[in-house]
Design goal:
It is built from 23 helices and 9 strands. It has 509 residues and is mainly α. The N and C termini lie far apart (90 Å).
């Protein structure tokens, strides 16, 4: 009897185990986790996260201060303004880029790489990945690239750092291959793409325009390679018309991620509601160098970019604008603070303002450089320079039709291009225009200035600065990398040079 009872119980247990095995997959599926990624959704998220990456810390406090678009009297927030070391600010971009925008676009690529009918989505994602990575490596130099964001796919948790040379050459290869493979007859991201609504023809122009930007980045380190990629980009077809400009679209809510990070991040952390220029949290103002140039050249873009608070309204007329000097420590009174220019909250700091990634103003000015170097002979450097200026004036209309500057003739007549000048003289004019036209994209302005040295800026020499009174050439690595990924970081430092703000990255040498 006892034996029969044991067999009976054993049978019940075996039956239970079979039942458990039968439903094992269903029982062990987490209902709160998406097991199969949705490429459209994740690509949209990568676009939002890739651009909403510590804008205020990276673009205003660091790059914008160093390149004298912005200034502040405060010391703690004057890292770029005064060449000080603040780990919170210089590490912010690195720390957020990988787990958000980069990781998300890698998920999209992994999900699509074996789906031939969705090749357009795959190749647009490759182009977007190149855009994200060029922003990271241009700030830090050698960074994780080939093994980065591979924890899910290949269980690499401590990626090696790659040389910027290897990264750049692969980015250019990726842009070339992806642009070539785009096929208008196949489906794309559609409305999941907030930049071009999935228009593959425009993405191809974006890819070649980014190739033009990166190709020119190599002029100091490898002129021959630079020329190769610049001529390839021009032949491929870059952005020449405003209708093809790469512009990220935003709305004023209902959530913060729908808002333009330029205005949202900056107004939330410094230019706060109700301060009216008198009590900004971080003391931020537009820099004297920037405002003085715009006034000296009677540049009509000043009224789109800047305003001085008079009561509760910003006055945007040219005559009242006043820039704050870089490198100062003495705090002005609240009344005096209000007399200095700040970004216009009805345009560049508006929550639903579009954000330009690459435009025909930039590409035409880069073509002007290519022509000045003799790498592009179809048009003259003078014509291309003037076309770039005109494009920048017209592009002010993205903030509203009333901001369009339709006639650039008075400006170009008063500030003519020196067609008979030396290459250096032409470069000064061309890249001073880049410095003006790309305002708010401080990362690109900072990268372009390091390559060209234009416009010529007078550094500050604030007591206690960490660069011996020179404008920093890169960002330092986050402190966390020294403890988490120390071996790979050590190899990067050995190859690139000491982890300081004055060590030049590969294309800057």
């Amino acid at each position: 009897m006892k034996k029969r009872t044991i067999l009976y119980i054993t049978g019940i247990l075996l039956a239970s185990m079979t039942a458990c095995t039968k439903d094992f997959e269903e029982i062990n599926t987490n209902p709160n986790v998406v097991e199969k990624p949705t490429p459209n959704f994740i690509f949209s998220k990568s676009q939002l996260d890739g651009l909403n990456n510590n804008y205020f810390a990276t673009n205003i406090l660091e790059c914008g201060g160093m390149l004298q678009h912005y200034a502040t009297y405060k010391e703690a927030s004057g890292a770029g303004d005064k060449y000080l070391s603040n780990e919170v600010y210089y590490s912010a971009y690195f720390n957020q880029a990988y787990p958000t925008g980069v990781n998300e676009v890698e998920i999209v690529i992994d999900a699509l790489k074996n789906s031939p009918n969705e090749s357009n989505k795959l190749n647009i994602a490759r182009i977007w990945k190149a855009y994200l990575y060029h922003r990271i490596t241009d700030l830090y130099g050698d960074v994780p690239y080939f093994e980065a964001a591979k924890a899910n796919s290949t269980q690499i948790f401590l990626p090696k750092y790659d040389s910027q040379e290897a990264i750049y050459k692969d980015l250019l290869k990726e842009l070339d291959e992806a642009a070539t493979a785009l096929d208008p007859s196949k489906p794309s991201f559609g409305k999941a793409d907030f930049i071009y609504d999935g228009d593959v023809t425009k993405w191809k122009k974006f890819s070649y325009s980014l190739m033009l930007r990166l190709g020119l980045r190599l002029t100091k380190v490898d002129p021959a390679l630079s020329k190769t990629w610049v001529t390839k980009a021009i032949a491929g077809g870059v952005i020449l018309n405003g209708a093809d400009n790469a512009i990220m679209k935003y709305t004023d809510g209902p959530n913060d991620f729908n808002r333009n990070p330029v205005g949202l991040d900056s107004r939330r952390q410094d230019f706060t509601q109700g301060s009216y220029g008198q009590k900004n949290v971080e003391g931020g103002k537009l820099a004297k160098t920037f405002i003085d140039l715009l006034q000296a050249t009677a540049d009509p873009r000043i009224s789109v970019y800047a305003g001085v608070w008079q009561g509760t309204v910003q006055n945007t007329t040219l005559a009242v604008q006043k820039g704050f000097p870089n490198g100062l420590k003495t705090a002005p009174t609240p009344t005096e603070q209000a007399t200095y220019s700040e970004p216009n909250q009805s345009t560049v700091f508006k929550y639903d303002a579009p954000l330009v990634l690459i435009s025909n103003a930039e590409t035409n000015l880069y073509l002007a450089e290519a022509a000045a170097r003799g790498w592009y002979t179809t048009e003259t450097d003078k014509d291309l320079y003037e076309r770039g200026v005109k494009a920048s004036f017209l592009n002010m209309g993205i903030y509203g039709a009333g901001y369009t500057i339709a006639d650039a003739t008075p400006y170009l007549t008063a500030n003519p291009f020196n067609a008979a000048g030396s290459l250096d003289q032409k470069m000064n004019q061309i890249h001073t225009q880049i410095w003006v036209a790309l305002f708010v994209d401080e990362q690109e302005v900072y990268a372009n200035w390091r390559r060209t040295g234009y416009p010529v800026l007078v550094p500050v020499n604030f007591p206690g600065n960490v660069t011996n009174g020179t404008i920093p050439r890169r960002f330092k690595y986050p402190t966390s990398e020294y403890s988490v990924n120390s071996a790979n970081l050590a190899e990067a430092i050995k190859r690139q040079g000491e982890d300081t703000f004055t060590t030049k990255i590969w294309w800057d040498k």
